[in-house]
Amino acid sequence: MLLSLHLFFLMLYLRLGHTSLPLVINTWPFKSATAAAWHALQSGGSVLDAVEKGCARCEMDQCDGTVGFGGSPDETGETTLDAMIMNGNSMEVGAVADLRRIKNAIGVARAVMERTEHTMLVGESASVFAENMGFAAEDLTTNESLNVFSQWLKGNCQPNYRKNVSPDPSTSCGPYGPKAAQTQCNGERQVNIHSHDTIGMIAMDTDGHMAAGTSTNGLSHKVPGRVGDSPIIGAGAYADSSAGAAAATGDGDIMMRFLPSYLAVELMRNGADPSAACKSAISRIKRHYSDFFGAIICANTTGHYGAACNKVPSLTEFHYMVADSESDTAVLKSVPCF
Ligand code: ASP
Fold first, then answer.
1. What pTM did the predictor assign?
2. In the predicted model, is pLDDT for residue 81 greater than 80?
3. What atom of ligand 1 comes closest to residue 227's alpha carbon?
4. CA 170 to centroid of ligand 1, rounded, Å
5. What is the pLDDT of residues 105-128, one digit of tens each?
6. CATH class of segment(s) 19-141+195-336
7. How far apart are the C-alpha atoms of 300 and 319, rounded to whole Å?
8. 71: annotated binding-site residue?
9. Domain extent listing, the chain
10. From the alpha carbon of 27, which atom of ligand 1 is closest?
11. pLDDT tens across 24-35, in order?
């Protein structure tokens, strides 16, 4: 009797847990991306379609200037893109990093997953692959990114991401060599709310199939060739339909050292609720880098979700978007950072 009562409540819990599926959740208030992903699901698309369409919308809208073309010029003024997409049922992944000339990075990531046996392609070769697959080659530079770049040049190439080096004595814009006695780049990390962002997205359907993905143009003034956390599996995002999914945003150079998305999913596998899993993943990084800039979103196998962020002066509250069958539209959510 007691056992059947237990079973009844367990089934009720599982059923209730599923009532708000399908689900789309993404980092930052990138509402048009959530709406595009939601629309994809509502029109019969798969969770992979939702993640691809949602992130692609951000790439075209240049969400915040931090996703897609025309943002975050590197030290040479070029915009390069990182993206990944993961199928939580099959555990297949496609990723591209340091992608040049192609606007639709998440589309190329999906092509890597579905048109090759590989998992990640990088740099010029990734761009050539994309061109061969029919993606249009375009200039990713805009007046805006040119302006950011020329302001940076005028400011003697400060801030930058180099450390323990000295620039040519006649300029502070390089070329750089190992640190000499006097002038040196201070190596102060300039990652703040203005120099970056990323769309990280999770989608889940009524059958519990999960997918996750990311797309970003990385950090302004990065050293050419720099790849952040966003296209790194388990760092930028991770999805396993039997455990949960997560996606991260923030200072990728720090965050990728801790695979926060993988960690959060494993914690959910072991029973942590999404908010607790997100918090633990942030805490793990905090232990070593107390003032890092970053946040993470998490969803478990019943479609419950949560988020967490590290509290720094430029981030005291983290905003993210959710659409589910209850809201039937993109709704802004926020979580206080800790
Ligand atoms: N994680 C991204 C990167 O480091 C940037 C961001 O999400 O803010 O490339």
1. 0.92
2. yes
3. 9
4. 32
5. 999 999 999 999 999 999 999 999
6. alpha beta
7. 19
8. no
9. 19-141+195-336
10. 7
11. 999 999 999 999
